[in-house]
Amino acid sequence: MKTRLDMDKIAKGLGAERRGAVVSSGGYFGARQLLADIEARFHVPSGGGRPTDPSWTERRLLPLAPRTLKRLEELAAKVREHGGGNLEPMQLAALLIEKTTEQLSEGEAEELIRPKRRASH
Amino acid sequence: MYIPIRAIYIDRWMAKQRKKRTATRKPVLTGRKRVLVVLFVPSLERDGSTPLDQPRWVDASLEMFGRVFGGATAYPKAKGIWRDDERGGALVKDEPVVVHCYTTPADIQDAHNLAELGVFCRKMGREGRQGEIGLVVGDEYFAIRDFEEE
Known about the structure:
- The structure holds 2 protein chains of 2 kinds.
- By secondary structure, chain A is mainly alpha-helical.
- Helix content of chain A is 51%, strand content 4%.
- Chain A has helices spanning 7-14, 27-41, 66-81, 89-103, 106-113; one strand spanning 17-21.
- In chain A, α3 (66-81) crosses α4 (89-103).
- Chain B is built from 4 helices and 7 strands, in the order αβαββββααββ.
- In chain B, β6 and β7 (140-144) form a beta hairpin.
- Chains A and B meet through α1, β1 and α2 of A and β1, β5, α4, β6 and β7 of B.
């Protein structure tokens, strides 16, 4: 679940005007946000090992299509090239799942699983 | 043969402890730093030609974010443009530095923290002779245009 921020309270506290929502999931800022996310959240566990988000305590097997895994591998390699540490494909998958579930409303989730109606007479 | 039996007992105990901790976890994690605050530090004054002491303001913003919210990252210069509607739509081209700060929902909605952030933005706007200071909090853009001291 995502905690809704009280934007009016923030605007009042800052002495600022609200100018509307921004979308920063793609492009330069999306990439920068992802790198900043990794930098801010990933820590080396106290017992050693690969840096990870300490709040990721649950483990599940996740079935994937080969093309999805390939895409994750490509994206993780690009993130590593741009300074994203040793990001592994499934760590990227966990980040993406987390972001999407936070942004997705219940209605949108229902839409995803509802069978698409075919045009018929 | 005694030791392995004891090891199984410890494993079960650990599993029980983990399960209990998961069940009592709050569904909304307000303590995690997952709200992104983005501040644009300009390179020029509103007239579009007078340079600003940008490194000073970048350092000052990092210090403010570090003190108030626990940390921030300043990225290398970007290219930017801003339309100054109060000067007949003149386009001001500059090279802003983008500062990212991750914070918690509680910290960004704290009145004292917001006041400190607001004071900093107004000071930068006033002393840097800006038309507007831009700030993104979460998924919303905020514009500060009144730089009067409170």
